[in-house]
Specification:
Elements lengths: L5 E6 L5 E7 L4 E6 L6 E7 L7 H10 L1 E5 L2 E7 L2 E3 L3 E5 L7 E6 L2 E3 L3 E5 L7 E4 L2 E3 L7 E5 L6 E5 L2 E3 L4 E5 L4 E5 L2 E2 L12 E3 L4 E5 L2 E2 L6 E3 L5 E5 L2 E2 L5 E3 L4 E5 L2 E2 L1
Parallel strand pairs: 1-3, 2-4, 3-5, 4-6, 4-7, 5-8, 6-9, 7-10, 8-11, 9-12, 10-13, 11-14, 12-15, 13-16, 14-17, 15-18, 16-19, 17-20, 18-21, 19-22, 20-23, 21-24, 22-25, 23-26, 24-27, 25-28
Length: 256
């Protein structure tokens, strides 16, 4: 798919199998919704193979989304990639509902926001072996949840890098967990930003991860009801700031 405006529109086709597709959709790469039985997406890569001409590519960065996923029950996504989009992976809610599934080996590079979750099923978005990079745009961030987010997202053995502003900005009332992840770069504008910033009524788990940059690590806002920040490796002073009066457990973090 060399340069379609929109690539694949997959709505209502249960047990779909979408595989081995490359290209540069200019607005939306893959759109999923109303999937009520297990679908599969494998080896779908969106790269700027058609053009990086300045006007076109800047428009794509400002407006386009690579993967847009609404209601899909138990979606399996394997070895997918997005380069040069406003949002790499966008999880939304429609009248049909929201997504849950297994995401293995997914990646995103040079996206203003690599993953944005506006909605997720309570069964969770389970993301393993991911690689996520953000460094362009007005507020480059690898992972964002919106104010209306309510569900669960869990990252396992995933890496986040690129001199963006922060790794994660977490809003809403769901749960976000990072386990065994590597945070390489953040605070790219040198303003003292935290790698992970939790606001509102979000529950947060950060356990067994490594913060490789000597910069603030975790901010827990006043409205966060519960969090566990434990057994992480930290470079430089431990800078985990807790403003919450909720049940916040911080322990076993080793710095050097």
């Amino acid at each position: 798919m060399l340069n379609p405006y929109q690539g694949i529109y997959s709505v209502g086709n249960q047990r779909h199998y979408i595989a081995r597709i490359h290209g540069q959709p200019l607005y939306i790469g893959l759109y999923l919704d109303a999937i009520y039985d297990i679908g599969r997406v494998e080896d779908v890569h969106w790269n700027p193979w058609f053009s990086t001409e300045t006007v076109l590519f800047n428009w794509q960065l400002a407006n386009a989304r690579a993967f847009v996923m609404a209601r899909s029950d138990w979606e399996y996504v394997f070895n997918t990639f997005a380069f040069g989009y406003n949002i790499g992976y966008h999880f939304i809610e429609t009248a049909s509902g929201a997504c849950n599934g297994n995401f293995l080996g997914i990646g995103g590079d040079n996206c203003y926001t690599t993953i944005q979750v506006d909605a997720a099923s309570s069964f969770g978005l389970l993301i393993t072996n991911g690689e996520f990079t953000s460094f362009n745009g007005p507020d480059p961030t690898e992972f964002v949840t919106s104010q209306r987010y309510n569900g669960k997202v869990e990252f396992v053995n995933s890496a986040f890098w690129g001199p963006g502003h922060q790794i994660a900005k977490i809003y809403g009332s769901g749960t976000v967990a990072f386990s065994g992840c590597t945070f390489v770069q953040w605070n790219g504008d040198n303003t003292g930003r935290y790698a992970i910033q939790a606001y509102n009524a979000t529950s947060l788990i950060v356990e067994g991860c490594e913060f490789q940059q000597n910069a603030p690590q975790v901010y827990i806002g006043p409205s966060v009801p519960r969090a566990v920040i434990a057994n992480n490796l930290i470079t430089g002073p431990v800078r985990i700031d807790n403003l919450s009066k909720g049940n916040i457990q911080i322990s076993g973090n080793a710095n050097a």
